[in-house]
Amino acid sequence: MSGKDRIAIFPSRAAMTLMKSRLKGAQKGHSLLKKKADALMLRFRQILAKIIETKMLMGDVMKEASFSLAEATYSAGDFSLGVLQNVDKAQTKVKSRKDNVAGVSLPIFECVSEGTDTYELTGLSRGGRQVTHCKELFGKAVTLLVELASLQTSFITLDEVIKITNRRVNAIEHVIIPRIERTISYITTELDEREREEFYRLKKIQEKKKKMRDADEAEKLKRQALGERIEARNLLEERDPDLLF
User: Fold this and answer.
1) Which of 51, 69, 81, 77 lies closest to 136, judged by CA?
2) Is the pLDDT reported for residue 203 higher than 70?
3) Confidence (pLDDT) at 170
4) Dihedral sign, CA of 223, 224, 226, 231?
């Protein structure tokens, strides 16, 4: 413990109670933060596994979607101009919500389809089946993209929160708790030393009181002996001097 800490903290029973309550609070906070870090790490690993799975699935879907687009273009011709002309407003929209994980809000993105399908007549003359299949595959790809964006956003958020939480856990475990324990040890040592000094002082006082009582008793006995001699002398002086023995 440093000299500044020793000066700032006066060793007393109240200080001991205060430091013990601080130690208990620090240990409780460390336990809660440790549980929070474990819960976040569990969710972090789940999201990481889901990201890997989604990326692999995304590669397969995009491969099928690209091949389906080539089939639809071969069957129905170039239908991109018709699709662009029918664009009025977005049919697929992204909505967000919050998911609470151990006090951390994670953004969750979801695809929502609104309105009617404006491309249902595309490829009606020829290649309708290939165009519909292509549309379904690209719709699935968009859904996977939104899901992947949600997972990666949650992944980054969790990564930052886990780093902060682990720093707090390490600070409490390796800095705050040892410092409080050293302070408690210092206060305990000072109080023990004070008790020894108090015991020694009381012992010395008792010895001094005993010496004083012994001196008073000796003085009392001396006075009693002196009084008896005086009384005997007075008795002798009061006797008749003509009395013959």
Assistant:
1) 69
2) yes
3) 92
4) positive
Cβ distance 91 to 117 under 8 Å?
yes
Asked, for residue 154, whether it belongs to a domain, the answer is yes
Instruction: Count other Cβ atoms within 10 Å, centred on residue 151.
Output: 22
Query: SS3 of 165, please?
Result: helix
Q: Which residue has the higher pLDDT, 89 or 178?
A: 178
Diameter over CA atoms, the chain:
176
Check whether 1 has a pLDDT greater than 60.
no
Range of the domain at 101: 3-187
Taking the C-alpha atoms of residue 84 and residue 95, their distance in angstroms, rounded to an integer, is 24
78 to 83, 136, 228: CA distances (angstroms): 10, 18, 146
Q: Give per-residue pLDDT as tens, 93-146.
A: 778 888 888 888 888 888 777 766 555 555 455 556 777 777 778 888 888 888
Tens digit of pLDDT for each residue in 154-185?
Answer: 899 999 999 999 999 999 989 999 998 888 88
How many domains in the chain?
A: 1
Is 97 inside a domain boundary? yes
Calculate the alpha carbon distances from 69 to 60, 78, 79, 83, 200 in Å.
14, 10, 10, 13, 98
> What CATH number is associated with residue 155?
1.10.287.3240
